[in-house]
């Protein structure tokens, strides 16, 4: 686990995406949980889609209970990332 905190605009999102992409490519990790403020969830989903389109990234926030359950099951069965808020 870890916390990455710094001033805005320094590239933290891209750094984390690149790091996680490398971890998945090297098969060093299968499941990741990212927890962030609600206001950042959609931005992170868009950045993952932009930089790592082949990586399974699912949202665990704001959707119905059935959709959240489905997303968790998909990530559990296969490799992937779950993004949620606190």
Automatic annotation (TrEMBL):
GO molecular function terms noted in the UniProt entry: ATP binding; DNA translocase activity; helicase activity
Keyword ATP-binding in annotation: yes
Residues covered by the Helicase ATP-binding domain: 1-86
Record InterPro entries: Helicase_ATP-bd, P-loop_NTPase, SNF2-like_sf, SNF2_N, SNF2_RAD54_helicase_repair
Alphabetical UniProt keywords: ATP-binding, Helicase, Hydrolase, Nucleotide-binding
SUPFAM superfamilies per UniProt: P-loop containing nucleoside triphosphate hydrolases
Superkingdom as given in the UniProt entry: Eukaryota
Residue ranges of the TM segments: none
Family matches, as PANTHER family: DNA EXCISION REPAIR PROTEIN ERCC-6-RELATED, SNF2/RAD54 FAMILY MEMBER
The protein, known as: ERC6L protein
Provenance organism: Piprites chloris (Wing-barred manakin)
């Amino acid at each position: 686990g870890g916390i990455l905190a710094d001033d805005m605009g320094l590239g933290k999102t891209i750094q984390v995406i690149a790091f996680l992409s490398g971890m998945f490519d090297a098969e060093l990790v299968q499941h990741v949980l990212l927890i962030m403020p609600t206001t950042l969830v959609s931005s992170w989903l868009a950045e993952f889609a932009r930089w790592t389109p082949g990586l399974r990234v699912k949202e665990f926030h704001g959707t119905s209970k059935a959709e959240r359950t489905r997303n968790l099951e998909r990530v559990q069965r296969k490799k992937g990332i779950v993004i949620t808020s606190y």
